[in-house]
Amino acid sequence: MAFRDVAVKLISHVYWHRKDEFMYNEDSYPCWTLFAVEEGRFVYGIGEHKGEAGFGDFVICPPHVGFRRRTLESLSFHFLQFVWLSEPSLEEANSWRGKLVIKDIERLASNYHYLKKLTGWDAESTLHKQHMLSDIFRLVAIERELREDLTSETDSLMEKARKYVTDHAYGSLSMSDLAESLGLTPVQLTRRFRRAFSQTPSEFLNELRLTRARHLLEGSTLTLDAIAGNCGFENGFYLSRVFTQKMGMAPSVYRSIYRV
Q1: Which of 23, 70, 90, 235 has its CA 20 to 30 A from that of 17?
Q2: Into how many domains does the chain fold?
Q3: Which pTM value belongs to this model?
Q4: CATH code of 218's domain
Q5: Measured distance CA(50)–CA(126) in Å, rounded
Q6: Closest CA relative to residue 152, chosen from 196, 199, 92, 122
Protein backbone atom coordinates (compact mmCIF):
# COMPACT_ATOMS: atom_id res chain seq x y z
CA MET A 1 0.00 0.00 0.00
CA ALA A 2 1.37 3.40 -0.92
CA PHE A 3 2.19 5.80 1.87
CA ARG A 4 -0.65 8.12 2.80
CA ASP A 5 -1.25 10.72 5.44
CA VAL A 6 -2.48 8.84 8.51
CA ALA A 7 -4.08 11.81 10.27
CA VAL A 8 -5.93 10.85 13.45
CA LYS A 9 -7.43 12.83 16.32
CA LEU A 10 -7.07 11.56 19.88
CA ILE A 11 -10.37 11.29 21.80
CA SER A 12 -9.26 9.70 25.08
CA HIS A 13 -6.27 8.07 26.74
CA VAL A 14 -5.99 5.89 29.86
CA TYR A 15 -2.89 4.11 31.11
CA TRP A 16 -3.37 0.81 32.97
CA HIS A 17 -0.49 -0.48 35.09
CA ARG A 18 -0.14 -4.21 35.79
CA LYS A 19 -3.75 -5.14 35.15
CA ASP A 20 -4.23 -8.84 35.95
CA GLU A 21 -7.41 -9.24 33.93
CA PHE A 22 -9.86 -7.26 31.83
CA MET A 23 -13.17 -6.26 33.39
CA TYR A 24 -15.02 -7.77 30.39
CA ASN A 25 -13.90 -10.63 28.17
CA GLU A 26 -15.53 -8.85 25.24
CA ASP A 27 -16.52 -5.25 24.66
CA SER A 28 -17.16 -2.78 21.85
CA TYR A 29 -16.56 0.95 21.56
CA PRO A 30 -18.20 3.84 19.68
CA CYS A 31 -14.95 4.91 17.99
CA TRP A 32 -11.63 3.42 16.88
CA THR A 33 -9.71 1.95 19.83
CA LEU A 34 -6.03 1.14 20.25
CA PHE A 35 -4.48 -1.15 22.89
CA ALA A 36 -0.73 -0.41 23.10
CA VAL A 37 1.14 -2.87 25.33
CA GLU A 38 4.09 -1.72 27.42
CA GLU A 39 4.60 -4.97 29.32
CA GLY A 40 2.93 -8.38 29.48
CA ARG A 41 0.90 -10.25 26.86
CA PHE A 42 -2.74 -10.84 26.02
CA VAL A 43 -4.76 -12.80 23.46
CA TYR A 44 -7.33 -10.98 21.35
CA GLY A 45 -10.02 -11.53 18.76
CA ILE A 46 -11.50 -8.91 16.43
CA GLY A 47 -13.67 -10.58 13.82
CA GLU A 48 -11.39 -12.88 11.85
CA HIS A 49 -8.29 -11.29 13.40
CA LYS A 50 -6.95 -13.12 16.44
CA GLY A 51 -3.62 -13.82 18.11
CA GLU A 52 -1.29 -12.69 20.89
CA ALA A 53 0.12 -9.22 21.47
CA GLY A 54 2.94 -7.90 23.64
CA PHE A 55 5.48 -5.10 23.69
CA GLY A 56 6.17 -3.86 20.18
CA ASP A 57 2.61 -4.73 19.12
CA PHE A 58 -0.58 -2.77 19.33
CA VAL A 59 -4.10 -3.90 18.55
CA ILE A 60 -6.69 -1.70 16.84
CA CYS A 61 -10.44 -2.30 16.91
CA PRO A 62 -12.92 -0.41 14.66
CA PRO A 63 -16.09 1.16 16.08
CA HIS A 64 -18.97 -1.10 17.17
CA VAL A 65 -16.98 -4.30 16.60
CA GLY A 66 -16.65 -6.91 19.33
CA PHE A 67 -13.19 -6.91 20.97
CA ARG A 68 -12.47 -10.27 22.65
CA ARG A 69 -9.46 -10.31 24.98
CA ARG A 70 -7.83 -12.20 27.85
CA THR A 71 -4.61 -11.44 29.71
CA LEU A 72 -1.85 -14.04 29.65
CA GLU A 73 0.18 -12.21 32.27
CA SER A 74 -0.02 -8.97 34.21
CA LEU A 75 -0.54 -6.28 31.60
CA SER A 76 0.57 -2.63 31.43
CA PHE A 77 -0.94 -0.85 28.42
CA HIS A 78 -2.22 2.39 26.95
CA PHE A 79 -5.90 2.48 26.00
CA LEU A 80 -6.46 5.15 23.34
CA GLN A 81 -9.54 6.10 21.36
CA PHE A 82 -9.38 8.15 18.17
CA VAL A 83 -11.13 9.18 14.97
CA TRP A 84 -9.74 9.56 11.47
CA LEU A 85 -9.43 13.13 10.22
CA SER A 86 -9.43 11.79 6.68
CA GLU A 87 -11.81 8.84 6.38
CA PRO A 88 -9.90 5.82 5.02
CA SER A 89 -11.23 3.62 2.23
CA LEU A 90 -12.57 0.19 3.17
CA GLU A 91 -9.29 -1.43 2.08
CA GLU A 92 -7.24 1.04 4.11
CA ALA A 93 -9.50 0.69 7.15
CA ASN A 94 -9.13 -3.10 7.03
CA SER A 95 -5.34 -2.71 6.95
CA TRP A 96 -5.52 -0.79 10.25
CA ARG A 97 -7.49 -3.36 12.23
CA GLY A 98 -6.04 -6.19 14.30
CA LYS A 99 -2.41 -6.40 15.41
CA LEU A 100 0.21 -4.02 14.04
CA VAL A 101 3.91 -4.37 14.79
CA ILE A 102 6.48 -1.62 15.36
CA LYS A 103 10.12 -2.52 14.70
CA ASP A 104 11.58 0.70 16.10
CA ILE A 105 10.84 -0.31 19.68
CA GLU A 106 13.24 2.26 21.12
CA ARG A 107 11.21 5.11 19.65
CA LEU A 108 7.98 3.33 20.56
CA ALA A 109 9.12 2.94 24.18
CA SER A 110 9.93 6.66 24.25
CA ASN A 111 6.42 7.52 23.04
CA TYR A 112 4.90 5.25 25.67
CA HIS A 113 7.09 6.79 28.36
CA TYR A 114 5.91 10.31 27.60
CA LEU A 115 2.27 9.23 27.24
CA LYS A 116 2.47 7.72 30.72
CA LYS A 117 3.85 10.93 32.19
CA LEU A 118 1.20 13.13 30.55
CA THR A 119 -1.62 12.62 33.03
CA GLY A 120 -3.53 15.87 32.50
CA TRP A 121 -5.93 17.01 29.78
CA ASP A 122 -4.97 20.67 29.59
CA ALA A 123 -4.35 22.08 26.13
CA GLU A 124 -0.59 21.52 26.21
CA SER A 125 -0.78 17.94 27.53
CA THR A 126 -3.45 17.08 24.97
CA LEU A 127 -1.28 18.47 22.18
CA HIS A 128 1.66 16.35 23.34
CA LYS A 129 -0.48 13.20 23.56
CA GLN A 130 -1.79 13.89 20.07
CA HIS A 131 1.78 14.09 18.82
CA MET A 132 2.68 10.73 20.41
CA LEU A 133 -0.35 9.00 18.86
CA SER A 134 0.35 10.50 15.43
CA ASP A 135 3.98 9.42 15.67
CA ILE A 136 2.96 5.82 16.40
CA PHE A 137 0.75 5.73 13.30
CA ARG A 138 3.42 7.36 11.18
CA LEU A 139 5.97 4.75 12.32
CA VAL A 140 3.67 1.97 11.14
CA ALA A 141 3.10 3.67 7.78
CA ILE A 142 6.82 4.26 7.21
CA GLU A 143 7.79 0.73 8.20
CA ARG A 144 5.17 -0.68 5.84
CA GLU A 145 6.84 1.21 3.01
CA LEU A 146 10.31 0.02 3.96
CA ARG A 147 9.16 -3.58 4.36
CA GLU A 148 7.88 -3.92 0.79
CA ASP A 149 11.28 -5.07 -0.51
CA LEU A 150 11.48 -7.98 1.96
CA THR A 151 10.46 -11.46 0.83
CA SER A 152 7.64 -13.23 2.62
CA GLU A 153 10.11 -15.99 3.60
CA THR A 154 12.36 -13.49 5.36
CA ASP A 155 9.41 -11.84 7.08
CA SER A 156 8.02 -15.16 8.26
CA LEU A 157 11.31 -16.54 9.56
CA MET A 158 12.36 -13.35 11.29
CA GLU A 159 8.92 -12.83 12.79
CA LYS A 160 9.33 -16.32 14.26
CA ALA A 161 12.74 -15.30 15.65
CA ARG A 162 11.31 -12.07 17.05
CA LYS A 163 8.46 -13.91 18.79
CA TYR A 164 10.88 -16.44 20.30
CA VAL A 165 13.12 -13.68 21.67
CA THR A 166 10.09 -11.84 23.07
CA ASP A 167 8.69 -14.97 24.74
CA HIS A 168 12.05 -15.94 26.30
CA ALA A 169 13.55 -12.49 26.92
CA TYR A 170 13.62 -12.66 30.71
CA GLY A 171 15.21 -16.09 31.11
CA SER A 172 18.15 -17.97 29.69
CA LEU A 173 18.31 -17.38 25.95
CA SER A 174 20.96 -18.64 23.53
CA MET A 175 21.14 -16.88 20.19
CA SER A 176 23.20 -19.80 18.84
CA ASP A 177 20.43 -22.25 19.74
CA LEU A 178 17.83 -19.95 18.19
CA ALA A 179 19.84 -19.68 14.97
CA GLU A 180 20.25 -23.46 14.80
CA SER A 181 16.51 -24.01 15.32
CA LEU A 182 15.85 -21.74 12.33
CA GLY A 183 18.42 -23.50 10.14
CA LEU A 184 20.76 -20.50 10.16
CA THR A 185 24.22 -19.70 11.45
CA PRO A 186 24.45 -17.01 14.16
CA VAL A 187 25.91 -14.61 11.59
CA GLN A 188 23.04 -15.25 9.16
CA LEU A 189 20.49 -14.75 11.94
CA THR A 190 22.06 -11.43 12.91
CA ARG A 191 22.16 -10.17 9.32
CA ARG A 192 18.62 -11.19 8.45
CA PHE A 193 17.19 -9.93 11.74
CA ARG A 194 18.91 -6.57 11.24
CA ARG A 195 17.55 -6.38 7.70
CA ALA A 196 14.01 -7.12 8.91
CA PHE A 197 13.98 -5.02 12.09
CA SER A 198 16.86 -2.54 11.74
CA GLN A 199 18.62 -3.96 14.82
CA THR A 200 20.36 -7.17 15.85
CA PRO A 201 18.64 -9.87 17.94
CA SER A 202 20.86 -8.92 20.89
CA GLU A 203 19.89 -5.25 20.60
CA PHE A 204 16.21 -6.20 20.46
CA LEU A 205 16.66 -8.45 23.51
CA ASN A 206 18.35 -5.69 25.50
CA GLU A 207 15.54 -3.26 24.63
CA LEU A 208 12.96 -5.68 26.03
CA ARG A 209 14.98 -6.29 29.18
CA LEU A 210 15.71 -2.62 29.77
CA THR A 211 12.04 -1.73 29.31
CA ARG A 212 11.09 -4.17 32.06
CA ALA A 213 13.96 -2.87 34.23
CA ARG A 214 12.67 0.70 33.83
CA HIS A 215 9.17 -0.37 34.87
CA LEU A 216 10.51 -2.14 37.98
CA LEU A 217 12.69 0.84 38.90
CA GLU A 218 9.67 3.13 38.55
CA GLY A 219 7.10 0.97 40.31
CA SER A 220 8.82 -1.30 42.84
CA THR A 221 11.27 -1.28 45.76
CA LEU A 222 13.19 -4.32 44.49
CA THR A 223 16.97 -4.26 44.79
CA LEU A 224 19.04 -3.96 41.63
CA ASP A 225 20.06 -7.62 41.87
CA ALA A 226 16.40 -8.65 42.17
CA ILE A 227 15.46 -6.49 39.18
CA ALA A 228 18.32 -8.02 37.20
CA GLY A 229 16.99 -11.50 37.98
CA ASN A 230 13.50 -10.49 36.83
CA CYS A 231 14.81 -9.06 33.57
CA GLY A 232 17.24 -11.77 32.42
CA PHE A 233 20.48 -9.99 33.36
CA GLU A 234 23.24 -11.92 35.12
CA ASN A 235 23.41 -9.60 38.13
CA GLY A 236 22.83 -6.04 39.26
CA PHE A 237 26.34 -4.94 38.31
CA TYR A 238 25.89 -6.02 34.69
CA LEU A 239 22.41 -4.47 34.55
CA SER A 240 23.80 -1.21 35.91
CA ARG A 241 26.51 -1.13 33.26
CA VAL A 242 24.11 -1.83 30.36
CA PHE A 243 21.46 0.53 31.73
CA THR A 244 23.92 3.40 32.17
CA GLN A 245 25.34 2.93 28.66
CA LYS A 246 21.89 2.89 27.08
CA MET A 247 19.99 5.41 29.23
CA GLY A 248 22.81 7.83 29.99
CA MET A 249 22.25 7.58 33.75
CA ALA A 250 22.66 5.01 36.51
CA PRO A 251 19.60 2.97 37.60
CA SER A 252 19.62 4.69 41.00
CA VAL A 253 19.44 8.11 39.35
CA TYR A 254 16.65 6.95 37.01
CA ARG A 255 14.66 5.61 39.97
CA SER A 256 15.00 8.86 41.92
CA ILE A 257 13.68 10.85 38.92
CA TYR A 258 10.91 8.60 37.62
CA ARG A 259 9.71 6.67 40.67
CA VAL A 260 5.91 6.39 40.54
Answers
A1: 235
A2: 2
A3: 0.64
A4: 1.10.10.60
A5: 32
A6: 196
